[in-house]
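Hey team,

Sharing the Helix-turn-helix run so nobody has to redo it. Sequence (105 residues) first:
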Amino acid sequence: MNLSDMAPLDAVIAEQRQDPAFRQAWDEGVFARQVAITLVRYRAEHGLTQQQLADLLTVHQPNVARLESGEKTPTLKELARMTAVTGLTFHLAVANGAVELSEAA
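Structure output:
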């Protein structure tokens, strides 16, 4: 199969969202994925390895890997530590049973 034969990621996700179980899991992971993108971007912009970022955050490297993969939803304590160390700012919206990252810098 050629890369050009593959469906775009957005199309695959839209198709998978037809399954209620997938849709629920996907929607519940939005916040974790948004934080992951912000953290990966920060690390890349600063030329840090996961281990170096883990050292700055005083956590183990596998914890950074889980946060960056979006598989782990960060706690408020973890977000506070990230902001103290990195200078990042997270603006959260908690409504309708969900937590959303309304803005990240």
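The mean pLDDT is 89.

Ping me if you want the raw files.
A.
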